[in-house]
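hiii so my PI (J.) wants the whole complex modelled not just the main chain, which honestly fair. so below is everything: two entries, each one labled with what it is. i double checked the lines twice but i was tired so who knows lol
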Amino acid sequence: MYGDLGNKLVQQAKRTQNLAHLPPYQTELVRAVTREVRDLDKDVSALLEPFQGSFHPTDDQAVACTLLVNHLSMRRNKRCLLAYHHTRIDRLEELVWKGYDVVDLAGQPARDGSGNTSGAPNIANSDGSMSNLSPQEEDYVRQYSDLLAAYKGQWTDIDLTGSLEPPRDLFIDVRVLKDAGEIQTEYG
Amino acid sequence: MNAAEYGCLDAILTDAEKVPCKFELDVPELGYLDNNPAQPLKSGATIGLPLWLAELLALANRAPSSADEDAKSFVSLNLPPSLSNEVMSALKADPRAVPLRDQSHNFYGLGTRMLDLFEEKEICAILRRTFVTRAADIALHAGKAGATDDMGVGAGEDFLRGLEEWERKLFKKAHDGAKGTKEWMEGVKKH
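here's the output for the full assembly
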């Protein structure tokens, strides 16, 4: 029935929350749900057609009921679509803060594949691209990274995306890159 | 419904739980709801509809001018099987013995939603007592699972299987909390 596909999307989103990586974007499912909304809208228009704009719900209760069901189904689908995309966007923003950029994220399936012990082949999403992200999501990540970079640029002395773990020691190890001759530190 | 609830996945999934609805009028176009698109939906037909559809169909006022109180909405709601008398008596007897997940993945969510629509003081009291009793049990199991390093998953998983979504979250929080405290205590000793 109407709304079942939307439910599948939300179940996907729920699963995503418990996964370490971002599963592939459900292009087909999203498309099917939007198609369902369009069909419902068409039904509503067809139902209202004979009334020429003078529909009275009390006079025609069966039609009113059908219209309400159609309307609620569309609203439900919208809610499912929003929730699905919101879950993914949240995850993507989190990954950007962790320092991934669009190339890392778009290339994720290849890495997942190599670490996949079950040997199952990667399922590319329907447009044949190997990315787990939809083109819109890739664009979002790109622009969000730019925003974050601009934001970080304001405070060059603070690493906003750095680790929050305080150092355990007063000293840190450094790797000497070039010969600096003799160095005198505070402690000799 | 507030904005946080609108986007909450668990709330959306709770909204998909089915509730028995009795249609109060014939609707020619809605036969598909009863898996029979060719036939009109007859008045009196009882179908399980998801909450998102059922609630508003039951609340919608189809004839605001009519004085007849009973014939006002499209459908009349009934309590879902997971809140039936049988389940309630089982919970009354021993809340811990009922695998709530088999009743509904979002048992308490569904209960809360239904009790918004029905005046059922007894169910409300039973659900509350059930949660309190089971929560204590959950805390106990969660603490145990954290205490052993070899992960008591075997028994833990069996226990988890009977928990509904909200209880699982509680379990996870209790478990992570106990583990976090333990780790922190060890860190304190070192320095």
